[in-house]
Amino acid sequence: MAKTIFRIWRGDARGGEFKEYESEVSEGMVVLDVVHRIQADQANDLAVRWNCKAGKCGSCSAEINGRPRLMCMTRMDTLPKDRPVTLQPMHAFPLLRDLVTNAREKALLELLMAPQRLGLAVVGPPGIPAEVTTLLRDAYLTMVATTEYRDEAIKRGFDVGAPNSGEAITEYVTSTLMTVPTETIAEYRTYVERR
Ligand code: FES
User: Fold this and answer.
1) pLDDT tens-digit profile of 145-178?
2) Distance set, CA 182 to CA 100, 109, 185, 189 (Å)
3) Which of 24, 50, 110, 127 is most exposed, with minimal Cβ within 10 Å?
4) 77 near 71, Cβ under 8 Å?
5) Ligand 1 site, residue 58, Cβ cutoff 6 A
6) Ligand 1 pocket member 48 (CB < 6 A)
């Protein structure tokens, strides 16, 4: 089992600091698994929130290596291995303690997490024949499954979680992103522009 250093922000709204923890990481673990292991073995008072463990509720959101992510959906083997993994609370939300924030809007979280849920979507113009779309989708899924692609993408800091199918992305955009209220989109923009 490989060992990984985690730098986790500890503190509350009055202040805090990063603390280092070393933990064993086994195959198939996601970031949330490692955080739970650290909590059990080394930091019983570490505050972390989660619920569904399936990328749906948004409660495990945190900034992983400086980017908004869901801890339950971020596989350890998609993160660079040559430096510590940094975990801190989401900048956008008022901080309660450690990795726990007080999310005002589930929809706002949804927008922040959309890039991770969508993965590396390839967008084409309307009117592409269905059989061509099928070929393109199959080729894309074959490409992202290769070791060469994953290694290069990780090196460049791209998201390489489990790739979504074109059908799953279409369903997510239609049923979730298209229903986010305009005031939440405006709030999201102010957050993105602040970063
Ligand atoms: S625990 Fe629900 S999204 Fe991670």
Assistant:
1) 888 887 887 776 666 655 567 777 777 778 877 8
2) 26, 14, 5, 11
3) 127
4) no
5) yes
6) no
